[in-house]
Amino acid sequence: MDEIIRLENVSYAYEEDGPRAVEGLNLSFERGSFTAVLGHNGSGKSTMAKLMNGLFLPTEGRVTVDGMDTADEKYTWEIRKKAGMIFQNPDNQLVATVVTDDVAFGLENLGVPPAEMPERINWALKQAGMAEHAFKAPHLLSGGQKQRVAIAGVLAMRPEIIICDEATAMLDPQGRREVLSVMEKLNREQGITVIWITHFMEEAVRFSRLIVMDRGSVAMDGTPAEVFSDEEKLERMHLRLPVMARLSMKLRKENADIPLCLTAEDLAREAEKRWN
Amino acid sequence: MLDNFAFGQYYPGTSVFHRMDPRMKIILLILYIAGIFCAGTLPSFAVPLLFMVFSIHMAAVPLKMVFKSLKPLRFILIFTFVLNLFFLQGERVLLDLGFARITREGLVNAVLYALRLVFLVMGSSLLTLTTAPVPLTDGLERLLSPLKAIRFPAHEMAMMMTIALRFIPTLLEETDKIMKAQSARGADFESGNLIQRAKAMVPLLVPLFVSSFRRAGELAMAMEARCYHGGEGRTRLHVLKMARRDYIALALGIVMVALTVALSRLTAGLI
Amino acid sequence: MELKLDHVTHTYQPGSPFQATAIRDISLTVGDGDFTALIGPTGSGKSTLAQHLNGLLKPTGGTVTLDGEDIHQKGYDRRRVRQRVGLVFQYPETQLFEETVKKDISFGPRNLGLSEEEIAERVRTAMEQVGLDYESEGEKSPFELSGGKMRRCAIAGVIAMRPTILALDEPTAGLDPEAREELMEMVADLHRKGTAIVMVTHNMDDAAKYCSRTVVLEKGRVVMDGAPKEVFTRAEELTQMGLDVPQVLRLGMLLREKGIPFPEDAICEEEAEKALLELFKGKSRPARLPGQEGGRGHA
How many domains does chain C have? Predict the structure, then answer.
């Protein structure tokens, strides 16, 4: 396996001798993979995200990004360039008063020659579907659009990984769909490794790997079908099954011949097989 | 609604004035201010006036927009005018009201001060009308950057200005929302004496501070995640380059000041 | 008890270049026992409408009456509306400001000019209703609570005013699934105890499950108004507006496309379960199709 991020025995406490927000974490992410991290508020998923680009340094253990140790200062900027991050609040991550200038912010920090910038900015805005809003002021955009500007800002830095820390939590359904579709496209077309932290079960269904966090460590790790087949355990983690999964599980309990289905399409297909 | 609050008053355009280097526009403004303060007589004001009219013409900004900036100042204008009118007592009395006299010197002085104020505001508003906030802060940062040698935080200042500009609309919106939310709980921001009113602000100010601190923390983290590490080694998207038009403007500006000084001297005894 | 909006229009900054009409010609009555879901795409005027319910915004056209009295007429005590119609804004935890949970919740009742005993009593019941512990959590700083509890504390601050109508603007936004479920159950409980609820929401599954009436706004106008079953069966129109439809409804549409007679009026999970079991009675495991086991997702 070609792994791009590796966490070895990682623990993190916000205060010295304080409680551990993550504890003994062992995980690795494959290059080009598409992973969702689930967990209730306070399960340590956001802390884990911030450990993966050196915003937090592990209290114990080691985090490496493409072989570079996040604790090693000489790699700090290289790591953050490689692993971009989108945060929860769309308002609190845009810096400039014009969209283009905001996308330029990261490039300016990296010291990219000004002549190269316009091309990279245009490309990034196009990828995020925000090219037509290039000269708008951020406060006039919708939440979903602001998040896509943030994605463009990260994308212009040519990252290999994008970590989305509950990037859709504050958006309306349409904004959520837009942002997730952009990330799906970036993963598929640009091969960007995506780590998507969320508590929307319906979003999780679309990923190839799910990690469930609880009390600072990994409680479940597998495909959506594997994770969602254990409803009891999910409930113990303060999570819920997606509606269709729950429905198909109930039918199974009533002895109906239906496998676990994750989406309405799945369930309709399975039902059709049995109808005829 | 605070949503539509337009900060600054940038009037988009492609005129020569719009395209000029923001640094030069700032320098011109300084020269222009020097000009209006050198103009000690009424006739000598003709020079900065001409310069102003010419600039507005070159900027292709509607006159109405330039005058609009004076509106909030009208009371200060009237106040300073009246104050100066009675303050300086000269020899040639124009009007004797008994308790106060208006003299010719007082009148001239009052007019001069009012004109300076009007010209000053119009000049600066022309700068903000033709320069978007980003190039403006860029220009300021670079004009001030020689001062880094004496540890003047030019970059940090410009970054602070940018962030402030970015967050003013957001904070206004938030203020509006919290005020409404507290009103829904029966808070009253409008009546009562001064102390009661000050007390009524607590339910508004505490949430605003809390959220501003949270925002600041999150923004700092987001900036770090995007490799922000201060001004060192930073490049800029907008490259500022002086063109021929900028040097011509500079020459005109210097000529304007010189002419004003000369004319002011020549006409000193006339009025 | 009846709150009535009669041909209400609201235009922001009329006469200025920023003039914008957020809602137009809306007539709506909220009465005892209602649980109304207010849905519509972002920018359709839901929040503006909600702010008319308790007189925070004054209509630029039309009237708002409470039990027959115009709430914006001269001499009408606006505090009376604020007391009877509670409004919980989006992310209400951002309005917390006091040192302790109790003090924060007592802010509303105190503004009503109630006696100390009455205030204490109301704070206690409000905390109970939202599931906060009076003894152990009352003296805590509201800023020390978890996200879900902060939200409930803020809602308690409105409930403590004992409104007969409670309007909530997206009360579950940003919460995790468990907190979301708990909060919805709490709102449903308030409704059972007699408070009329008006809830702005993007979550169609919640609207289908809890509400007795659904009002759909588009571009500032009411375009649909009826029982959830009536509204959600117009799925195509909803989808065109960029809205979600309850997932069960989508399932139903897919099934009917495939010729399976799934009932059109099933919109929530329980109904779907019942309908499917009915349809597949006699087709249970390990009946005729053993080879079909292990379709996608079967672990």
Answer: 1
Q: Where in chain A are the domains?
A: 3-224
| Residue A254 phi, psi (nearest 5) | -85, 15
**At a CB cut-off of 8 Å and minimum separation 6, what does C192 contact?**
none
Give which of C90, C95, C96 to mutate to test B binding, by max B Cβ within 10 Å.
Answer: C95
Closest of B268, B252, B263, B234 to residue B28, by C-alpha = B252
Does residue C30 belong to any structural domain of this protein? no
Between CA B171 and CA B183, with CA B177 as vertex, the angle to 5 degrees is 135
Q: What is the CA radius of gyration of chain A?
A: 20
CA distances, B173 to each of B169, B189, B253, C87 (Å)? 6, 17, 41, 18
Measured between beta carbons, which residues in chain C are less than 8 angstroms from residue B196? Answer: none
pLDDT at B95: 78
What's the whole-model pTM score? 0.88
Q: Which of residues 227-246 of B touch A (CB under 8 A)?
A: 227-229, 233-239
Asked if B207 lies within 8 A of C18 by C-beta distance, the reply is no
Q: What is the mean pLDDT of residues A230-252?
A: 91
Asked whether residue C9 is assigned to any structural domain, the reply reads: no
CATH number of A3-224: 3.40.50.300
Residue of B nearest to A50 (CA): B225
Using the beta-carbon criterion (under 8 Å), do C255 and A271 form an inter-chain contact? yes
Q: Looking up tokens 């201010």, which residue turns up?
A: B33
In a domain, C115, yes or no: no
Q: What is the DSSP letter of A167?
A: T
Does ipTM exceed 0.90? yes
List the structure tokens of B39.
């103009």
Domain range holding C256? 246-281
C250 lies in some domain: yes
Of residues B151 and C63, more confidently modeled = C63
Per-residue pLDDT tens over the stretch C134-174? 999 999 999 999 888 999 999 999 999 999 999 999 999 98
Amino acid letter at A135?
Answer: F
